[in-house]
Design goal:
Length: 159
């Protein structure tokens, strides 16, 4: 299996520790279900049950993140964020506002199963707040602008 890295920069609105150290950031807008969130596999169910594929990989979980001034690349990471929760939310583990003057960068390494060799590899996003530039192995695979709309990029060539 080859390690593949993914770097997604969700721009303008949108120390590494393990999942044992993850905790919600405060108690704001907390529900009884928050206690049951598992940082090792949050929202691990297939996102579209009526169109489930036999082979798929869920990338929800802890990602490295950095909040930097707009237009500045992330050179180091501030910590970890629990995806798919928004950076402002308690369940993200960050609980910070971004503002229009900042960008949020995410980074994650993942493994593509060997039995997927020869297949097209699609990267699906359920929603991004406003804008996302997506990079895989230092190759920009696409950009998306639009609030909370799902989108997909074929990342095969970058792997």
């Amino acid at each position: 299996m080859n390690k593949k890295s993914l770097l997604a920069a969700a721009a303008l609105l949108l120390g590494l520790s393990g999942s044992a150290q993850w905790q919600p950031a405060g108690d704001k807008i907390k529900t009884p279900w928050a206690e049951k969130v598992d940082p090792a596999c949050p929202l691990n169910e297939y996102p579209r049950p009526l169109a489930e594929r036999a082979r798929w990989k869920n990338l929800n979980g802890l990602w490295n993140y950095s909040i930097v001034p707009a237009g500045t690349p992330a050179e180091a990471y501030d910590g970890q964020i629990l995806v798919p929760f928004a950076v402002e939310s308690s369940l993200s583990g960050v609980g910070k506002r971004l503002g229009a003057e900042n960008e949020l960068w995410y980074a994650r390494t993942f493994v593509v199963p060997t039995d997927w060799s020869g297949d097209r590899i699609l990267l699906h996003f359920g929603a991004v707040d406003w804008k996302a530039d997506v990079w895989v192995n230092d190759v920009q695979v696409g950009s998306h602008t639009g609030g909370y709309a799902p989108f997909t990029f074929d990342v095969t060539a970058a792997l």
